[in-house]
Structure formats: C-alpha cells, structure tokens
C-alpha cells in the first residue's frame, strides 16, 4: 500500500483571533511544548507506518512559513509535495488537485489520507489503528471518513449516522455504512444522537484512493474535477532535493467552482463509510476549547504566560509577553498579544469571529497581520510609527536577502545591531557590522543580505509622506516576487 498523508493548511482561524490572523492562521499557533498545530499534523502523518511521501495543500503566501516549520522537525525524512493555491477555493478544489497529482505520480491505487492542519489528536496509537482500517476499506473502493464517538451533546459539530454492514469488516477493524450526514443540530437533537449510539462527530478527516475520489467527483461535481485538471496542466512544477512544488495557475484556478468536499461529494456518494474511533480528537474551534488543553489550578483557572489571577474562577488567560492581571472575575477568556487584547465571556467564545469580520470589513491590519510579520527572508516588527515616520526591527536569516528594491515616497536609515550585512545602496556595495549604518535616499535602489552565520538584526527608520508596504518597487527577488 502507498499511503500519502495529505495535509490541508488553510483558513483564517477567525474564532481564535487575536492569536490567529489571516497571514498567521490557526495551524501556526504554538503550544507549551513548542510545537505548532501544523507541526503536530505533519508528524502525525509522517510517523504512520510505511509512509514515504507527504503532500501539503496551502496558500502560496504561506509556503515560506511552512518551510520554516518543517526545518524545525528533524524527524521528517519523507519527500514532500506542495500544492500552492493562489487563493482559497475550499476543500473540494484542494482535494481534486491532490488526487489528480497523486494519480499522475503514483497511480490510481495510491491511498490519500486527508488531514486538516489545525486539529489535535492525543492518542497516536489509536489513530494509527483507525488509519489502517480506513486504508483497507479505501482500497476496496470506499470513501472513508473518521467518526469521533461523542461524549457530550455537542452542537458545534456536524454528525454522521452509521449502520452495521458485514462487508465492511477488515483484519484491523470495522467500518459502518454511512446513512446520512447531519449539520450542526439543536441541543435536543444532539442529546438524541448521543443516546442512540449510531451517530458520530464528523472529524473532517478522510481516506480514499486517488482513482475512487476522481470517479466520484466525475459523477457528483464534474466541473470541479475538469477545471482542476486543466489548472494542473497549466501550473508550474519545480523540484529540489526532497521537495516538489506545484504552483497552481492563477487564472485557471479561479475558474474552479468553490465548494466543500462534504457538499460536493461526501453527502451525495453511495459508498461512504465511517470508521468509529476514540483518538483524543479536537478541532479546537474556539478559545474555550483551546483553553481546555491547559491544566487548571484549584479554582479551575487555566493560565499560559505571565499572569496574576486573584479571587477569580474558571478563567482562561493567555499572555504573549505582557503581564496580565485578573481580579474578581469568573468565566472569562483573556488573550493578550503585542497589538490586540481579547476579553470574552466563555459562553460567547464562538462570537469572536465577528470581531475578526468587523476588523476585516474596516480594513484594519489586526485581522491580517501580527505586529511581527514573517517574510521569506526573516521577520520585521513595527516598534513605533507616526504620521511621517515608522521604526522597524528587521531580522534576516543567515544566507537570506531582501529583494533589490526602491521606494517613491520614503527614505530609510539602517543601523546594524547584530551580525554582518552586505548592502547595496545606489551604486555602492557596503559591508556593515554592529553599530554601523547607511542612509538610503528616496528612489535609490537598495538590497540587504545576511552574509554571516548568525541572525542579522537591524533597526530601520523610515521617514516620508507615505509609509505603506505597497511603496515597494521590486527590481530583483530570489523568492519569485518579481514577474
């Protein structure tokens, strides 16, 4: 069997704002053990038996962040294929592209295991057993989903009803024939489903052969698979050691109909199978669920970071640097970041997405970026800004360089704090070290490169009538950001 874990890394994670932003979505949130949700998902797939290849579907703007996440994982030995989308078209388009690429590379019998990048699974042993059962059922021509045995009448999840079918017994476990999918129910219905024993939470994880999925898509959503095939044929392919990158063509990808795999295929198919499992699963759909992953104190308060909590009960407090104090409060969620603070009642944790939506509608940067923003070459942090000035801390990874660029509306002053920089400033080439600087005039072309072995750190002071990030004219770029 050729099993290919296929990790879908997208979405905005709006219900986990302000930690999650559009350009730093939920999969990149880190836990106390230092691992992000994405890293946990990659390891989850890579540590399954006999896995030689991984596939990751994501927005192309997130590629460099994902590459950095993978570099921190010494355990990953498999080759990885990236399918890079220019924009989000939902899960049906992502799975169509992955299935087409898999069939072209490995054949129609190859088994895809689709895993969202933002879930938690605590029991890897039970998960591996469920995957083995699902893969055996997939090889028999079934579309398989993983059903989580409910332990409460949860109204935030979709449900799957299954019934016994003797033909779905395998050497490692059993599956149930899916009789129907149910959208998020009322509390009374959820309680009824719990008591019946026939219903399972829809985990959003799937297993199928490439050939079976494409046959089902041809039957139920032919336009999605046809346009995805045309897009893949027009897309740029590149290879490096251990990596394959497929950059989906912008124009043709925009022609792929937008739909979820559940609506496009799963709810219409006659050969759906659910594998019941108890694997310690959570999709962490709110701060309330996220907080439950932290051990409580004697007053049921759950604290991450530097916080002082007095005379308070059942609160979740997460601080990313600032000291947070909570006095005489109950049932609150408090999440503090460098540029935004969330205070919410635990019973309203699902409403956080409305704050995200309001910020996006107003065009406020806090829906999209953190104060520290990642780039392919490193990061920059806005330290201070006013009407005519902006101050940044810039960190450049060893061997990395910014684009050769110029600005129409601002000049810049660079002061090296740490490391060694090679600088192009107009017609000059400079080598600058700690406490050395250079001044860049408006319209002068310039570039910054870290030629040392350590992180390059500098302070940049911008002065001008307009200081927006769109006042960058790129002339050359090693990261493909120049046409």
Helix/strand class: alpha/beta
**Number of individual domains:** 3
Helix content: 10-25%
Shape summary: globular
Tally of helical segments:
11
| The CATH homology group name of the largest domain | Spore Coat Polysaccharide Biosynthesis Protein SpsA, Chain A
Supply the CATH class of the largest domain.
Alpha Beta
Give the tally of β-strands.
30
Unreliable runs: none
CATH architecture of the largest domain: Alpha-Beta Complex
Radius of gyration: 25 Å
Biggest sheet, strands in spatial order? Answer: 20-21-22-29-24-27
The biggest sheet, with number of strands, parallel, antiparallel or mixed sense and barrel status, is: 6 strands, antiparallel
Taken as a percent bin, the fraction of beta residues is 35-45%
**CATH fold name of the largest domain, please?**
Spore Coat Polysaccharide Biosynthesis Protein SpsA, Chain A
Regarding quaternary structure, what we see is: single chain
What separation lies between the terminal Cα atoms?
Answer: 41 Å
User: What is the typical, i.e. mean, pLDDT?
Assistant: 94
């Amino acid at each position: 069997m050729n099993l290919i874990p296929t990790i879908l890394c997208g979405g905005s994670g709006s219900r986990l704002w302000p930690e999650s932003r559009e350009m730093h979505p939920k999969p990149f949130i880190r836990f106390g053990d230092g691992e992000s949700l994405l890293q946990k998902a990659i390891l989850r797939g890579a540590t399954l038996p006999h896995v030689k290849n991984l596939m990751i579907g994501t927005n192309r703007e997130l590629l460099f962040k994902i590459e950095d996440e993978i570099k921190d994982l010494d355990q990953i030995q498999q080759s990885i294929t990236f399918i890079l989308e220019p924009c989000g078209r939902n899960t049906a388009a992502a799975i169509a592209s992955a299935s087409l690429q898999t069939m072209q590379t490995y054949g129609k019998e190859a088994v895809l295991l689709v895993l969202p990048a933002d879930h938690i699974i605590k029991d890897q042993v039970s998960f591996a057993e469920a995957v083995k059962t699902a893969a055996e059922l997939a090889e028999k021509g079934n579309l398989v989903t993983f059903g989580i045995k409910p332990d409460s009448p949860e109204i935030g999840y979709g449900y799957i009803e299954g019934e016994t079918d003797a033909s779905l017994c395998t050497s490692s476990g059993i599956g149930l024939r899916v009789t129907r999918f149910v959208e998020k129910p009322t509390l009374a219905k959820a309680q009824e489903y719990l008591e019946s024993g026939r219903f399972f939470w829809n985990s959003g994880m799937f297993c199928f052969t490439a050939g079976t999925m494409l046959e089902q898509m041809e039957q139920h959503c032919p336009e999605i698979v046809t346009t995805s095939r045309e897009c893949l044929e027009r897309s740029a392919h590149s290879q490096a050691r251990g990596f394959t990158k497929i950059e989906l063509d912008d124009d043709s990808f925009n022609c792929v109909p937008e739909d979820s795999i559940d609506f496009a295929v799963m709810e219409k198919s006659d050969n759906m199978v659910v594998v019941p499992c108890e694997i310690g699963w959570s999709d962490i759909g709110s701060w309330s669920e996220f907080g439950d992953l932290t051990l409580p104190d004697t007053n049921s308060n759950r604290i991450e970071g530097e916080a002082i909590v007095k005379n308070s009960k059942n609160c979740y407090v997460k601080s990313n640097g600032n000291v947070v104090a909570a006095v005489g409060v109950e049932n609150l969620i408090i999440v503090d970041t460098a540029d935004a603070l969330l205070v919410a009642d635990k019973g309203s944790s699902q409403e956080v997405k409305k704050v995200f939506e309001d910020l996006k509608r107003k065009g406020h940067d806090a829906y999209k970026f953190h104060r520290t923003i990642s780039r392919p070459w490193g990061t920059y942090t806005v330290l201070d800004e006013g009407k005519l000035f902006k101050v940044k801390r810039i960190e450049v990874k060893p061997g990395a360089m910014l684009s050769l660029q110029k600005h129409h509306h601002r000049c810049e002053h660079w002061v090296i704090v740490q490391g060694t920089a090679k600088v192009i400033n107009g017609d000059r080439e400079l080598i600058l070290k700690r406490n050395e600087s250079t001044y860049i005039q408006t319209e002068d072309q310039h570039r910054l490169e870290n030629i040392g072995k350590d992180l390059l750190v500098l302070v940049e002071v911008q002065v001008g009538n307009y200081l927006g990030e769109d006042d960058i004219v790129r002339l050359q770029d090693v990261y493909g950001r120049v046409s």
